[in-house]
Amino acid sequence: MDEELRFGSFSIHPGRRSLLRDGVAVPLGSRAIDILLFLAAHPGEVKSNQEIVDRVWPSTFVQEANLRVHISALRKALGDTRGEPRFIANVPGRGYAFVAAVERVAAFARMPAGRPPQDAADRLRILGRDQNIAAIIAQLSKGRLVTITGPGGIGKTTVARAVLAALAPAPGAVSIDLSEVGDADLVQTLFASALGLPSRSADAIAEMARALDARQALVVLDSCEHVVEAVALLVEAILDLTQSVCFLATSREPLRVTGERVHRLKPLDLPLSGVSAEVAARSPAVQLFVERADACLGGYELSDADAPAVAEICTRLDGIALAIELAAGRLESMGVAALAGSLADGFKLLTRGRRTALPRHQTLRATLDWSYHLLTRAEQQALAEISVFRGRFTLDGAEAVVSGDGAEAMAGLVAKSLVLAEPASAGESYRLLDTTRIYAAEKLAESGAEDAARARTLAYMCSLLEASGTVVQAGSADEIAGRFGYLLPSLRVGLDWAFGDGGDRLLGTRATVASLPLFFKLSLFDECFAAITTSLTYLDADQGRDEASRMKLYAALGWQRMQTIYSAGHGATASSRAGRIARRIGDVDHQLRALWGLWVDAVNRGEPAHGLELADTFTDLAATSSDPTDTLVGRRMQGATLHWMARHAESRAILAAMLADYEAVASQSHSFRFQFDQRVTAHIVLARCRWFLGEEAEAMREVEDALRYAMEIRNQASVCNLLAEAGCPLALLAEDDARAARYVGMLKEHTKAAALDVWNAYADCFEAELIYRSGDSRGCLRQLHPNMQRLRAAGFVLLESQFTAVEARAMAALGQHEAAIRLLDAALAAATSTQQLWCLPLLQRARGTIAADFADEAAALASFTAAIRAAEEAGAAAFGRRLHEDIRRTGLSARF
């Protein structure tokens, strides 16, 4: 078929294998192109599924589901997905038909029809490159020199040959392989020889130009990188002397000739991890692997069991076509899973390519050796040094790590396709393909300069994080992840080096301190804890080495969220140590942080009286702080503590005034220094106070408003804290099960995202109460007991009274009413002794209800009376109303 097929606003040419809509290329896979060509060539004819499969997948068994996937993609590309089909109709039980009118037009090509003989590479099917081929053809229509660039093994030669075939060149088209030219002086000789002309005549270049111009030739120059200067001079001279000659070059760097258009070939698209075979097979990288595996084994079909391993192989190999080919070839001696697990040293594994391939394409190491030896000495050194980065890095980072001129070396490495430049939200960044990084890391180790490069890298990241501390503290988690998250892979490797044999432990400690805001902002508590404890082990061995860092690390270790990992009791110890060092060196900020940590520990342990003393001390010291809003944080601590002591009206007044003042002068640093957004934290206790005081509807609106704000600022910790201390418990106290279930679900989801065990245990305890209310008392206790133990072990008993009330009710429902009463009596005694008076009405109400249910009228009267008295003393009108309802329900109204 030499005609172009046109239908509607679309056109397709069999040779070019590209679908155009109004002249613009439409992305479409190779199989879908084959199906479209077959159907459009026979308009109005019904083609059975088997006919299509035989045409598109000759000699291959293909399930009909695979055909349906490609038909669906084809219809989507044609906009044929809704209503009456305009192009492709499904004829039930028979197959498919192309139903649009097709116009056949003589195909336009730059040169007369004809095609050079195919070689082995041409016979390989091109996968995932249709858009590249179409784009290069479009570039050739706009300019006379297009250079395909990209890393070694990415498929530049294959794409260039596909372009040449798509343009249907005349027999006089010239294709010149420069890979075996070792001397730049021989470039002109090889060029002239390909044209059958003498190379040493006085006007050799002019003769070559005349010969090419007469043939309107397209000249393909393959593998120019090692003789790029000689090629550039020759190409520019011929372009100046001709009108119709076009050049298509492949090179790992541009020729830098006037009028050159550069097409950078990227790796093949990779699959998502953990997907089915059907989904994975949409990735060109996987398609290439499967095709080569099929050729190697004499039959291979991707299964759901193999799909994750194949996806991992393609990802580890960066979508590099050569590496994927070589990997598939290893299936002769090992299975897919074993192959995926053995790629740690890809250079040993990825050998034995096609015998007909160029020597540098027969192993992965040979390919990289070829590129490496084309670099200048400075570029070789820079490539080795930047191998210490993991993932993305910036030009500033490269300049800090490279011992020579980093900017100049990076420009050269990007031009020569050994470093990829990628746009990012925070500006342009760079990365090495993993295969290149492993190779360069070997070169760095061989040079003996690895430790020095790693030290410069960690020092750079340390300085960057120190300078950005305020920005990290103030931004949302999503913002900070987008702006600084790229540092984490390199930071982890840097810290491992610093604390390993031969590393710089003092630098590692400094980097740990600088990283604290980032670790906390992104909720990376496990690795933060590991880095802190490793640093403290080093600093505690010589306490005069860096007291400021030791103080900051102990302050972080005393934070509430660190206690989700750290053993019970150590949070207060860590805060005390931080406070002692802060007082000794005169650091008011960390004295306040230490007091805050001790206050949190006291409140969580159910010791509000001690907590109030600490809050008062904090407020007095805050008056000397350089941040005037620290006194407002102290007032919030005082107000919150009073609530737990059942002084709800006082608490509400203090918190309302604090919020009014805080809105005007709020400091962005507080959400880091004192863990949570101070507005949200104040609203948590204010909502509780309002509910206890009888303003139930207003209290729940307060929770919703605070939740909306916490979600807007994307502060996961504040969202979890709000749901755990206000949303869930208040909804349950109000017996609003639907709202409670929604809040519990949200807490579980956000706790999972924030990786916080304590709040996850809270969520399970709240859910246990809902299980009890559904009538499953045994299920309630089964879920409640282990989670209450987890909370006690971590020192979080703030809401234990509410859980104990549920536990007692569930026990009584199972006939254990005496044990339930003993449990409540112990909880009441503990609450009274520690002045956790907020829960007295709750516990006495549960005791009275259980006694009434078991016909112990005297005990019920005594408990209800005590509950009413405690509620009245606290002004807890919400409990008062519920207590009177309980009394009416139990038939005891006449006794009051």
From TrEMBL:
<dbReference type="InterPro" id="IPR049945">
    <property type="entry name" value="AAA_22"/>
</dbReference>
<dbReference type="InterPro" id="IPR027417">
    <property type="entry name" value="P-loop_NTPase"/>
</dbReference>
<keyword id="KW-0067">ATP-binding</keyword>
<dbReference type="InterPro" id="IPR058852">
    <property type="entry name" value="HTH_77"/>
</dbReference>
<feature type="domain" description="OmpR/PhoB-type">
    <location>
        <begin position="2"/>
        <end position="100"/>
    </location>
</feature>
<dbReference type="InterPro" id="IPR036388">
    <property type="entry name" value="WH-like_DNA-bd_sf"/>
</dbReference>
<dbReference type="InterPro" id="IPR016032">
    <property type="entry name" value="Sig_transdc_resp-reg_C-effctor"/>
</dbReference>
<keyword id="KW-0547">Nucleotide-binding</keyword>
<dbReference type="Pfam" id="PF25872">
    <property type="entry name" value="HTH_77"/>
</dbReference>
<keyword id="KW-0238">DNA-binding</keyword>
<protein>
    <submittedName>
        <fullName>ATP-binding protein</fullName>
    </submittedName>
</protein>
<dbReference type="Pfam" id="PF13401">
    <property type="entry name" value="AAA_22"/>
</dbReference>
<dbReference type="InterPro" id="IPR001867">
    <property type="entry name" value="OmpR/PhoB-type_DNA-bd"/>
</dbReference>
<feature type="DNA-binding region" description="OmpR/PhoB-type">
    <location>
        <begin position="2"/>
        <end position="100"/>
    </location>
</feature>
<dbReference type="Pfam" id="PF00486">
    <property type="entry name" value="Trans_reg_C"/>
</dbReference>
<dbReference type="GO" id="GO:0005524">
    <property type="term" value="F:ATP binding"/>
</dbReference>
<dbReference type="InterPro" id="IPR003593">
    <property type="entry name" value="AAA+_ATPase"/>
</dbReference>
